[in-house]
Specification:
Maleyloyr_isom, DinB/YfiT-like, TIGR03085 family protein, four-stranded mixed beta sheet, alpha+beta, 2 domains, 4 strands, MDMPI_metal-binding
């Protein structure tokens, strides 16, 4: 399964980076990302925001990540994420198609959060055609949500491949890039994503101002 493959690659990148490497997630180092992934994979109920404390999940990740500054503790957290839930944990029941639906995009994007951060980002990877097709299909609904408030219409275009309208409008811009680049852009990694914005100059300017805000 693609999610298992990408999880393994993400674990390797986290291990090689160590606890204090930068990521594309604002304010997070790799230890924060490791804390998030460990909690999300093994105890996701702890990340559910409390009505009386909407920032409780962020505070929990900050607290856990503080304990991961030491390389041994960080390595243990990455290993716990890699191993997944144990014992009677109900998360052990998640597998197959459910695992792909829940985790493939999560792992892909967070892997790029590690790979493309810092002063010497790594270049985009050559992904299998079957995987890029899966990413394109799975990211469609999220893209519609991500661009729901865009001031102009939005059309996603894969070079020499499919296209789709994710936001209707009298005037539209085209976002051109590979499926993973489109996903990164939609998920807020806009400076790191290799996506080209084209259209009428006023529409492009309006969209870029919205995307930067």
């Amino acid at each position: 399964m693609w999610s298992a493959r990408e999880k393994s690659a993400l674990v390797e990148s986290l291990t090689n980076a160590g606890p204090d490497a930068p990521t594309l997630c604002e304010g997070w180092q790799t230890r924060h990302l490791a804390a998030h992934l460990m909690l999300r994979g093994n105890e996701p109920w702890r990340l559910v925001p409390r009505p009386w404390a909407p920032d409780s999940a962020d505070r929990l990740i900050d607290d856990v990540s503080e304990g991961l500054r030491e390389p041994t503790a960080y390595a243990a957290a990455v290993a716990a994420f890699a191993a997944g839930p144990v014992g009677a944990n109900p998360m052990r029941l998640v597998g197959g198609r459910a695992d792909e639906a829940m985790n493939l995009l999560e792992y892909l994007v967070h892997h790029e959060d590690v790979r493309r951060a810092g002063p010497d980002p790594l270049p985009p990877r050559e992904l299998p055609v079957e995987l890029t097709g899966d990413v394109w299909r799975r990211a469609g609904q999220f893209s519609k949500f991500a661009y729901r408030s865009a001031p102009v219409g939005v059309v996603q275009v894969v070079p020499e491949g499919p296209r789709r309208r994710v936001r209707a409008g009298a005037v539209s811009v085209a976002l051109t890039g590979a499926p993973l680049e489109q996903t990164l852009f939609a998920m807020g990694r806009r400076d790191a994503a290799r996506v080209r914005i084209t259209g009428a100059p006023d529409a492009v300017a309006e969209f870029e101002a919205w995307a930067a805000g």
